[in-house]
Write a structure and sequence with these properties.
Layout (H helix, E strand, L loop, with lengths): L9 H13 L4 H13 L14 H10 L4 H17 L7 H14 L7 E11 L2 E9 L8 E8 L15 E8 L6 E7 L9 E3 L2 E3 L7 H6 L1 H9 L3
Antiparallel strand pairs: 1-2, 1-4, 2-3, 4-5, 6-7
Amino acid sequence: MAERKDEKDEEEKQIFSFLKDQVKIDGEEASKLASYLRREEKLIESKDTIELEPQQWKKIFIHVELAPVPKRKLLKKVNEMRKSENQEPLDINEIINSRSSIRQRNCCVNQYRRNYAQILLINGNMATIILEQVQLKRQQKKKDKLATFNLNDDKWKNVDLKSGDEILCEYSFESNSSELRVDKIEFPVLYQGEVKEDGDSQFVPVQVHCIKSVLLHTTSIYHHYNTFL
């Protein structure tokens, strides 16, 4: 995986301060969001948030999961800024509720779905991942599902995947079949946290998406993230 920067750049720090101090978002969520806005949306300052379109906000909230209250606080603040620039306000309810619509559409068979997963095991050229809370059919309950894929597939053979890695996985399955097919793999946004101290030790807390998987592979996960410190 790509190396982390040791420090936030000045633009990211400014966006982080805006989210934490003006919007009043929790520091951990503000750090994740600031990192994504700077690295993926290429924002330079907090004022740039007024230029983001509704579809961009929907994408942001897919990649950086926030609780409903921080989402509303952020979008209300953005609308205040848009109003001062004589821009049309965002439809906050439409942006936030779109996540529910996406989930409903994804309950249908033959739909591509995206979810965070962790590589549990690599055996030769084959990797096994666990996808949490998968619903194969509308009438079935959600349950965790294992899937395997070939590491030498041309679509991702140049990606250095290791056991314990967290990935953002796009997958699908055929009608009348419970077998999942991995279609696309990418690494999640690398969130950057502030260095904290505990006695003689320093550490950077990192929030991962695959809570259940992490509990199964705590040692390998922490070993993996220690390489960034």
